[in-house]
Automatic annotation (TrEMBL):
PROSITE patterns: ALDEHYDE_DEHYDR_GLU. Residues 12-466 form the Aldehyde dehydrogenase domain. This is Aldehyde dehydrogenase (NAD+). GO terms for molecular function: oxidoreductase activity, acting on the aldehyde or oxo group of donors, NAD or NADP as acceptor. Keywords: Oxidoreductase. The keyword Oxidoreductase applies. SUPFAM superfamilies: ALDH-like. Belongs to the aldehyde dehydrogenase family. Gene3D superfamilies: Aldehyde Dehydrogenase, Chain A, domain 1, Aldehyde Dehydrogenase, Chain A, domain 2. It holds the Pfam family Aldedh.
Amino acid sequence: MKSHQNYIKGQWVSAQSGLLMDVINPASEKVIAQVAKSHHNDVDAAVEAAQKAFPAWKALTVEERIGYLERIYQGIEARKEELAQVIAAELGAPISFSRSGQVGLALRELKASLEEVADFEFEEMADQAKVVKEPYGVVACITPWNYPLNQIQRKITPALLTGNTVVVKPASNTPLTALIYAEIIDQAGLPAGVFNLVTGSGSEVGDYLADHPDVDLISFTGSTEVGKNLYSKAAPQVKQLVLELGGKSAMVYLKGGDLTFAVKKAMDTVIYNQGQTCSAMTRLLVPEECLEETKEAILNYYQEQVVVGDPLAEDTTLGPLVSADQLKRVQDYIEIGQEEGAEILIGGHPLERPGYYFESTVFVAVDNAMRIAQEEIFGPVLCVLTYQDLAQAIAIANDSIYGLSGGVVGPADQALEVAYQLQTGNIFVNDGPRSPKAPFGGYKQSGLGRENGKYGLEDYLQLKAIFL
Ligand code: NAP
Ligand code: MG
């Protein structure tokens, strides 16, 4: 079995302790590789390398930095099938989704950032003052397992393009994708220390990295709980943060719209990636009188679209959850929902087969005050809620500590009116397509800052006004 090292200062190095940790395939429950189980001294080495590399990297022209990122793009493109296979193996995402929704998404977003940075104004005038936008220094990138390639891409692309150097701490469930990314970066010939990767546990390595006095910006994607912890830990040093946290987004169906489409759009987000997507529309809101029709549309979707199976099988649409812990979390929420009085329309059980499989599950008779409607489950679970009038629909959708994504399906003018009233960072109106140049990020406790396009670049730059 292969064991992997950290990537520090342009070299592959073992954890100084020599310790390793297992990577498990969630479909087979077997150990498929081992990676370095790093500790504080490994983080110190990575941060030092990033700090030393910063002045020269910052001094390059933007065009020079774009050149390196273009080579990284080509490197991902050249290894995209291998990356999709590794994501299927360590995350359990079906291969078709790994190709398009994981690797394809990363390529589209990276390309969009390269297009946007070409026109980005790194200097501008405010009256007679010259305003220059400068990098912070060393960026700590701490990422989750649900999109193991793109969550890293969304951070390192803007951080590097703007002249920062980085230390990445990937999720322990999915480090193999991150290690291929590091190989690609190594082959792209970045100066030593500009990009560093350290694997290890969040509570030991992630926490220490974020707290490191020589880290200038923390860029974190993950749970709101850990995000809040990092926010408070950044306070003593007034450290800058980018936080992409949880969500409990609503799909609001308005009478007169295409109900089948609204159901498909919400169900897709809880099936793709097994519902382990922060922006999933896990609450479907429909008018009371449309409930029966909604149930029918859900059952039809389920029969036509849900194919549980091996992630490597071409026709699988629902694979296993990422880990035994995640399976337990979903099971616990199913029990909580039933105790709260919600009814199960479909699903509700783990599958009798090896692997961390859980049935696609839909709750009806859900009240928005229930925990299953307020808390992020992060599994293939949809909650259906009903409303009496538009004002109530908007109130229910906004009654959440989160505000990451959402959708409105209905007559175009009315749907747009509702979109304006929802407190959320992204909102899809009918079949509006997403753009990799648009900002991604949340209102309320879904986070701080925005990723993607020119908005992502801005988060990694600080402003200096020079009065001439
Ligand atoms: P998580 O437990 O918060 O972990 C995210 C990352 O933080 C992992 O690398 C983890 O390391 C590390 N970490 C854990 N504890 C830490 C600590 N005390 N200090 C510093 N780092 C720590 O989240 P997850 O379970 O991987 O991912 C699921 C969550 O991420 C969901 O809540 C989801 O909504 C959110 N998410 C948000 C977005 C977004 O863009 N808004 C996108 C994807 C996911 P280990 O892996 O070693 O534990
Ligand atoms: Mg975790």
